[in-house]
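[job 0417] fold request received: ATP-binding protein
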Amino acid sequence: MPTEDSDAMPVQGEQAPIIRIDASPTKELFITMLVRDLSLRDAIGDLVDNSVDAARMLLEKRDATVKEDAEVLLSEFDYEALKVTITANPQEFIIEDNCGGMTVETARNYAFRFGRSSKADKTPGSLGQFGIGMKRALFKLGNNFSIVSRTRTNAFTLNVDVNEWAEQTDWKFTMSDYDEDAPPVAAGEQGTRISITNLLPDVAGQFGNPKFITNLSVEIENENVYNIQKGLTIGVNGQRLSARPLEILTSPDFTSGYFEQSIPIMDKMGKDVEVSVRYIVGVGDPVLADGGWYIFCNDRLVTGTGPDQSPVSGWTGRQSDGGPIYHDQYERFRGYVFISSVDASLLPWNTTKNSMDMDSKLYQGIRAKMIEMMRPVISFLNNLKKEREADNPEENRPLHDRIAKTKVVALSTINKDSPQIAAQFEAPKEQMAKQKKSQQVIRYEESKTRIDRVKKVLNVNTLPEVGQRTFEYFYENEVQ
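[job 0417] inference complete; emitting structure tokens
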């Protein structure tokens, strides 16, 4: 009988031997291929997302504690007390937070698995979805990493040399320093510190480039604009990031479009769940870079450059399925869509969280609603443009007069009960007065022979030139 590894043919009538093919992954796949299409900024963004998720979990625990203990100090747990700090230079990368930390059990059984275990605790409304963000970020940056984490009663340190680990057949990391019964510490002392050294050459080069650090700061700032506005502090190389204002203009004449919906969807386990979506559209100040659609998934802005101004959000050109191509005529457009799900894997964005999944039926329906809601705003902005054309005097611009009387309202103050909202955007329909033309047309007929003789004398070639020159001659010699 042939052995499992034998190439011998089975005798006729006998059952062929079973040959098992090794399909297990290699560590090289995770160390190299898994990070190939991941940008350095997106990798760091994944680590920031982990800190934000930890903050969410800490606040979830706070809410549970409040129900049990009326003496809990809420100030220790509010967003205003939570911080994420990043240090990036050619020698090392460090990200540190005070957002609650990670338990030894979580680190041992779930956090370092290559893929999310179905048994792992889920953070409602989290940003992580596949369980690979932290690992591929670590491999993307360098060859040595250290993780120190502290919860209220748990503490551990994990040190990994990636090159040494890659040579071992065992996939497990070794945690040599941990304590599952540590003395309790206050909320502000609970957090995680990740430091990466022996950086990859390309990474070290980027971290030595001030322009890269500036762009990194802007991207993190944009992605976390909503959380920063709620009070979360994020700093890069000692500089605290600020949030661009999320605002909309309103007045008795201008009503923002507002719509909420819950979309049923089936998760991977076959369970019916709902994804909630909230849309707000209107107008803002005329700033080209600030116009467009702000798309949030679980409060995280999807496009790290700011608002989306591409076909992804409906700016396709009128010959396609959306609205016009975005340009300065629409710089006042403001659209906000918040897509929320308890299960982050149901959010319709791509794996790097920097754009939407255009093949997602969920997002196709959301995008169709976005396009529907943007049309009244586009019509108003088209009318606003007409008022500026053909040297129309400022006193004949009623829509400009109305929009000048609006006031800025923070987006966070708008909800379904707000007085300044309606099912769709509403704006004044007042039109500018028709201008009286200051010029008139003179028309007369003459024989071609006589006109040709006048053309020759005036040295011109066209009939309008003949009319203009003859009128000027008469006006200069007989009127003035």
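[job 0417] notes: The chain has twelve helices and 16 strands. The CA atoms of residues 396 and 434 lie 9 Å apart.
[job 0417] exit 0
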